[in-house]
Amino acid sequence: MTDLKQTVLHSLHLELGAKMVGFAGYDMPVQYPLGVMKEHLHTRAAAGLFDVSHMGQILLHPKSGELADAALALETLVPVSILALKEDRQRYAIFTNADGGIMDDLMVANRGDHLLLVVNAACKDADLNHLKAHLSDSCVITPIENRALLALQGPAAETVLAPIAPVVTDMKFMDVATLDTDFGTLCISRSGYSGEDGFEISVEDLHADALARALLGHDACEPIGLGARDSLRLEAGLCLYGSDLDETTSPVEGALTWAIPKARRTGGDREGGFLGADRILLELENGPSRTRVGLRPQTRAPMRAGTVLYASQEATSPIGTVTSGAFGPTIEAPMSMGYVATEHAEIGTVIYGDVRGKRLPARVSNMPFHPASYKR
Amino acid sequence: MKFTEEHEWLRVEDDLVVVGITEHASTQLGEVVFVELPEEGTTVTKDQEVVVIESVKAASDILAPIDGEIVEVNEPLADEPGKVNEDPTGDAWFFKMKASDLSDLDEMMDEAAYNAFIG
What we know:
Chain A is α+β, with helices and mostly antiparallel strands and 376 residues long. Chain A has helices at 10-15, 36-45, 67-74, 124-135, 157-161, 205-216, 226-235, 277-286; strands at residues 19-23, 26-31, 47-51, 56-62, 89-96, 102-110, 115-119, 139-143, 147-153, 176-181, 184-189, 198-204, 221-223, 290-297, 308-310, 320-328, 333-341, 350-355, 358-365.
C-alpha cells in the first residue's frame, strides 16, 4: 500500500469520508459514507461525481499538421475508423495486439488539430510505449500530466454542470467541447461509464478541487466511488478492461464488432491494416469460437468473476467462465457477463454456473441489463 | 449475549442457541444482497461453513460457532437479505442450534470483551 499514487483529489476524498482502496496503482475511493448501493441508485436518479483522474489522457499531434495523418496513423493500432471521426466528436476504440487480442480499450476525441485519447489507468504506461513505438514518425505523442478527470453521471448531470459550462446544454452523446470557465480551460465530452447521460471533464490540476467542490455543492450531486462505478457499468453492459477484455480476447469474441466499421473490414476502403487483422477479419467472417454474453442468474445468488459455466447440471466439461458478476441495485437482481462457447451464446439459453459446488441456472441475456439513457 | 472472533453473536433462547452477525460485521460487509441458509436438521461441527452471505462487495462464509444441530433457519432472510444491515442483532438471526455442549459458550467473549476486541 505504500507505493500507491494519489490523484489531485485525494484529500477531498478523505475529507468526504471515503473508504480508500488500491486500484491500478492509485489510492482511490471505493465508497463514501452513502455506501455502494445508495451511490449507485443516486447516480441513476440524480447525479454522481466520480474521480477518474487515474486514467491516462494522451495527446496525438500530427507532425504534418494534417489531422488525417494522425488519424490514419492511429488506425494502424485500432480496428476503428478514426478518419471518419468529425471535429468535436469522440468514439470508442480498441488497441489490438499482433495476435488480435485487446491491449486496452479507449476513447478517441477529434479536437480539431489533434486527437485526445483517454485510456485505462492500469494500461496507460504500456499504451504510451505502444504509441511511441508505432506512431513516433508521424505524431508527437504527449501524455497529459497536469490534468485531472472527473465524470459527472446521471439524469441531473446537465443541470449540475450547465451553470459552470453553459455549452453542455447543446451537446449530444459523444460530443466534445473545449471552453474557458472560472475553473480554467475544461475539455468536456458527453459520455461516461454508467449507462446514464453525463459528462467527462478534463480539468487542470490546480482547478480540480474547486471544480469538484462546486459540482458537489449542487443538491443533486453526490460523490460516488469505484464500487458503484462497477455495478453501474455492469448494469450498462460495459466491459471492464482486465476483467472482461484482455490480451487473449479479440474484439469479435468480446462482442465489440459494432466498433469495427465496414471500412476496416474485408472489402472495405481501409481493410485491415491494424495489428492482429488476420485473426480479427477471419473471426468477423467465420464467427468466434467463444463470445462475451450477458447472464441473468435465475436464483438470487450472484455469479461472480471466475464462476465456471456448464451447459447442463451434469456436464463435465466447462463451456465458459464469468468475467464480471455482481448484484444490480437498479435491476434488483444478480447479473454477470462472461465468455461461453458460441454455440451456447444464443439469447435465452439456460446454462449453469458452479457456485460453491452447486450448479445454479443462468439465462443468456441481452445487455445492457438496464437500458442506457444517453442524450442522442 | 456471547460473541466470537468471527463476529458472530450467540443468544440462548429456550435451550437453543440463536446465531447472527454483529453490527460491526454487517457494517464492514456493506449492503447484503444474498443469504444462503443451511438445511434444518444439519449436524455441524465448530468452524464448518454453514451460511453464505454476499454483499455488494464480496461473498463471506459464516462458520458454525459450536458443535451441534441446526434446528431452525430464518427463511424470510433469503428474500430480504437487507435485514442483515438493518437489524443484525434482532430480526436478522441466521439459525438456531441445539448445542452439543452448551458450556462451550462459557469461554466466549461477553459484550465488553467483544467491544474491546473490535477496538
